[in-house]
Amino acid sequence: MPELPEVETVRRGLAPSFEDARIVRVEQRRPDLRFPFPERFAERLTGRLVTGLGRRSKYLMADLDDGSVLVMHLGMSGSFRVEMGRVESEEPEMPGEFHIPRSKDPRHDHVVFHLEGPARPDAVRIVYNDPRRFGFMTLVERAALASHPLFEKLGIEPTGNQLDADLLARLFANRKAPLKAALLDQRLIAGLGNIYVCEALHRAGLSPKRAAGTIVTKAGRASAGAERLALAIREVIAEAIAAGGSSLRDHRQADGTLGYFQHAFLVYDREGAPCPRQGCGGTVLREVQGGRSSFFCGRCQK
DNA sequence: ATGGTACCCTGAGAGC
DNA sequence: TGCTCTCAGGGTACCA
User: Fold this and answer.
1) Covered bases, chain B (protein CB within 7 Å)
2) Among the four A149, A175, A201, A215, which has the fewest Cβ within 10 Å?
3) Are residues A139 and A176 located together in one domain of the fold?
4) pLDDT per residue over A226-244, tens digit each?
């Protein structure tokens, strides 16, 4: 499901169950997802205390008390759900109790973490479900994280003020790849995906097909477009996180609730709709770039 | 180094 | 109903 706002939403949903809990058992139900699980995966996790749950780009990382980090990526279709108590029974939920999401398709429940922790009186299970199996999990020593192949080339987070027009200009200078491709390049900016790139480009009034280097002036300075783009990226990401991410195809968050940012999409998956920009009058188009759909207004995105 | 493509996998929805 | 086709929020390997 995940771009950065969805992964951050998952992190916040899982943190109360994961943090300060002990992993008492791990069910690893197949040898691989996108990649093989590491050797002795379940064994290395069993007995560990989870000291924190973080996020870098689209990766979730659970810090463990032995100095290792459980790194998890959701791919396209991965999701977690939290189960508490006797979820298999038909007992009605207690009033005011959490909604307990049942598995949509238990065949794709690939990993189950059994936890004991202080957050809730009941034992907790965290279940990873991933029909397409583009997600993966691995274990990395914390001291080796920065130099790990997954992380060493990752670009900056599109949150906070670090991403400004000048940095964007530096990253994109002289690049001939389209803006769409440059924004999706995780080595430049880490965490953007197809939806939020489409949305940010529309907000900034920039065409996804325009060469990335053209948002830099001849003098090597950030253009007005670069200013708008940096702002648009930070805003759309912040708004999406605040909304609990986007829930496409009924994809639920860890606590069973749905994010609602999909209702704020201005162009994504809106081919043929009138451009929502005031006074534009254009139409939202869909064109494939690099094998993925770009949604944009052909009139106001230059 | 840079940019483009094919491919990994399953499920949902459209069209016939 | 059932078939076939296309598409899907990601990333990597490999090519020119």
Assistant:
1) 2-13
2) A149
3) no
4) 999 999 999 999 999 999 9
